[in-house]
Structure formats: structure tokens, C-alpha cells
UniProtKB/TrEMBL annotation:
The keyword tRNA-binding does not apply. InterPro entries: Cholesterol_7-desaturase (IPR050584), Rieske_2Fe-2S (IPR017941), Rieske_2Fe-2S_sf (IPR036922). PANTHER family: 3-KETOSTEROID-9-ALPHA-MONOOXYGENASE, OXYGENASE COMPONENT (PTHR21266:SF60), IRON-SULFUR DOMAIN CONTAINING PROTEIN (PTHR21266). Gene3D superfamilies: Naphthalene 1,2-dioxygenase Alpha Subunit, Chain A, domain 1, Rieske [2Fe-2S] iron-sulphur domain. GO terms for molecular function: 2 iron, 2 sulfur cluster binding; metal ion binding; oxidoreductase activity. Residues 23-130 form the Rieske domain. The keyword 4Fe-4S does not apply. The lineage of its organism: Bacteria, Pseudomonadati, Acidobacteriota, Terriglobia, Terriglobales. Keywords: 2Fe-2S, Iron, Iron-sulfur, Metal-binding, Oxidoreductase. SUPFAM superfamilies: Bet v1-like (SSF55961), ISP domain (SSF50022). This is Rieske (2Fe-2S) iron-sulfur domain protein. It comes from Terriglobus saanensis (strain ATCC BAA-1853 / DSM 23119 / SP1PR4).
Length: 363
């Protein structure tokens, strides 16, 4: 489900440094039919994505290495991508050139030694995940060395799934700290089925460090959130665990005996100044009840739209590049994120969370 994409007046927003050498979701794969291509922008990189006749998907840099014309201006026959300008043909998964029509028998140039930009591309949870390497990393020959492709945790073979997406007119840093902010719920997400300002009460949660991130340890879900109360019908203890992992991933898992709900939320930089939020959820709760996926998407879309509208409004203020104020304890996860990101970009520093820490806030 695509949400509306309101824009401010076009004034450039503050940019953020982006993390390469990672997997990012480019687009939904249900839009990729065999023999067709689509374009996308990811971390400022123009992409051409498509599905070959054998069902495999690919992601190429949408630029011909010959003269720089977008490959999307050309043709795709289900097996090769052909440039519109001079007819060069490329195998899209690896980017290898297979034909240069202008060459004659006396030319010594070997087309197969030429490569267009191509990136590892894998289908997971209905997304085309694209690995964008660090600048200067060169062509990736051994894909077994890459990080594991992210996906939503699953705890049974039968489950339902849903996806939501929204464009945000702010840089990825603002998108992410908004994603992990624990104090905005009663204000941004006011609704009879979620929370109100009157429902605010003190909370305390234990956080522990994990590799390239941190975890809100397993705990009973918020008593002032109506959706969690529905799980009480199963008569089991309900627990929630939330992980944040660089560069942009929030995993949430809710367990109630054999029943479960899990989600992966990502905030992906589209450009240095804009980003996109994607939520993929899987669950076996109320598995046999009709219309649950439609209902979940309806209320989920309202929830994400509230975040989107807030970020659109915030973007108006960010045009003036104000100094940010981060306080303790509710803003400590944001501080950890910035420290983790800086450590990743520079290769220096310790994990900002030295050990388990209990945070307190009201929401």
C-alpha cells in the first residue's frame, strides 16, 4: 500500500551521510513481471530492476558504461538489456556485455571484458533487496561474502503478511530517530484503538547491546495499547522484543504462546535528503479469521500515515537547519544510533551501550 507523498515547497532538506556496503529494499517484487523493468533510486544511485524469463530478478546501475545514457531508455527481452544509443547488450544479473553491434571482425576489443554496473539483488518478503557496495569496491565476484539478507522472523509455516510504505521528505537520520522514538506515541498516534494523551504513564525498559545495534529486552507490551490487549484472548503470557540494527532496521517480535506477530521496519535513504519507510509484517494471530489482513493494513496505514504527516510537518522546520536537542532518557536510543553510525563510518570507537541499561520515560 502506497501512502500519499506530500512535499514541502521544494527547499532542499539537510542531507545525511549514507551507509554503503549494506542491503536495502528497492521496491516490491510483485511489480516485476517477466520481461519488464522498473526504475528506482536508492542512496542516490539510479537503478534498473527487472525479472528475467527464468524468474530471477536483477538490479543494474541505470547508466550505460559507454556514453552514460540510462539503460531504462533501451530494451529488455527477458534475457539481456540493450542500450538505446548504440545497441550494446548486457546480461543484467552480472552486468557483462555480450554484444557491441558496431564491432567488425578486425576489431580486437572483446565485449565480454566490459561490465555495466550490476548489484546483488535478492527477493525476500516481497521486496527486491539490493546490495550497494562501498565506493571503489569494484565488481562483486563472490557473493557468499556478503552479509545475510534481512527478513522478517517467522515462527510457523503458516502465516499472513502485509506491507506498508511511505515517502518521507527528510534525511534518513531524522527518519530513523523518529522510528525509534518511544515518547511520541500518545501525541502523534492518538486514536481510540491505540493511545491518547490521557493514557500516558511511566515506563521502564531494559536495553542491551547487540552487534551493530541494541535490543529492548523481552518485556510485557504496553498496557495502554489496545491492539496488544487483543492477544489476551489466547490466555498466554505476552512478550515483546524490539531490536534496532544498523543501518536502518527495526525488528519487533510479539509472542503469545504459539501465536506470534513479527515485523521488520526499514527507513531507507532514497537521496541524501529524502528517505522511505517500509513495514513488512507477518503473523499467525487470528490466522483463520476472515479479513484480518485487510483490517491490519487499514489500521496500519493510518498509523504510518500519522508518522508520515508528522515528518512532512517537521520538514518545514528542518529547512532552517535548527540545532537538535536530544534529552535523556527517551532520546538515548537516538544518541546510541548516531554513535553507532559514526563508529561504522569511521571504524573507530566503542559500542555506545557498554552493558545492560534500564531507561525510564513517560508515554
Amino acid at each position: 500500500m502506497k501512502l500519499r507523498n506530500d512535499k514541502p515547497d521544494g527547499t532542499p532538506q539537510p542531507p545525511a551521510e549514507m551507509i554503503f556496503g549494506e542491503w536495502y529494499p528497492a521496491l516490491r517484487t510483485n511489480a516485476l513481471s517477466k520481461g519488464k523493468t522498473l526504475t528506482a533510486l536508492l542512496l542516490g544511485v539510479p537503478l534498473l530492476l527487472g525479472r528475467k524469463n527464468d524468474g530471477s530478478i536483477f538490479a543494474m546501475r541505470d547508466l550505460c558504461p559507454h556514453r552514460g545514457i540510462p539503460l531504462s531508455a533501451g530494451w529488455f527481452d527477458g534475457d539481456t538489456v540493450q542500450c538505446k544509443y548504440h545497441g550494446w547488450k548486457f546480461e543484467p544479473c552480472g552486468g557483462q556485455c555480450v554484444e557491441i553491434p558496431s564491432l567488425t571482425q578486425i576489431d580486437a576489443l572483446e565485449p565480454t571484458k566490459i561490465y555495466a554496473g550490476a548489484y546483488p539483488c535478492v527477493e525476500r518478503d516481497g521486496h527486491a533487496w539490493v546490495y550497494l557496495p562501498e565506493a571503489g569496491a569494484g565488481r562483486i565476484a563472490d557473493r557468499s561474502t556478503l552479509p545475510v539478507v534481512p527478513e522478517v522472523p517467522k515462527f510457523s509455516t503458516k502465516f499472513r503478511t502485509a506491507h506498508l510504505s511511505a515517502e518521507l521528505p527528510c534525511n534518513v537520520d531524522h527518519g530513523i530517530i523518529g522510528l525509534m522514538d518511544p515518547a511520541h506515541g500518545p501525541f502523534v498516534h492518538q486514536a481510540w484503538w491505540w493511545r491518547s494523551q490521557a493514557s500516558i504513564h511511566e515506563k521502564k525498559k531494559l536495553f542491551v547491546p547487540i552487534e551493530e545495534g541494541f535490543r529492548m529486552a523481552s518485556h510485557a507490551p504496553s498496557a495502554n495499547s489496545a491492539p496488544y490487549k487483543l492477544l489476551g484472548v489466547y490466555g498466554s503470557e505476552i512478550t515483546t522484543t524490539i531490536d534496532f540494527v544498523l543501518p536502518n532496521r527495526r525488528y519487533e517480535t510479539i509472542r503469545a504462546g504459539e501465536k506470534w506477530f513479527a515485523s521488520l521496519t526499514t527507513v531507507t535513504p532514497v537521496t541524501p535528503a529524502t528517505c522511505r519507510i517500509d513495514v513488512v509484517a507477518c503473523w499467525n494471530i487470528f490466522y483463520g479469521v476472515p479479513f484480518v489482513p485487510a483490517i491490519a493494513k487499514y489500521f496500519g496505514a493510518k498509523f504510518v500515515r500519522q508518522d508520515q504527516e508528522t515528518m512532512i510537518e517537521q520538514a518545514e522546520g528542518l529547512r532552517f537547519r535548527p540545532a537538535m536537542m536530544l534529552i535523556d532518557d527517551a532520546d538515548l536510543p537516538a544518541k546510541w544510533y548516531f554513535a553507532l553510525k559514526q563508529r561504522r563510518l569511521t571504524g573507530k570507537g566503542e559500542h555506545p551501550l557498554a552493558g545492560p541499561m534500564e531507561l525510564h520515560w513517560r508515554s
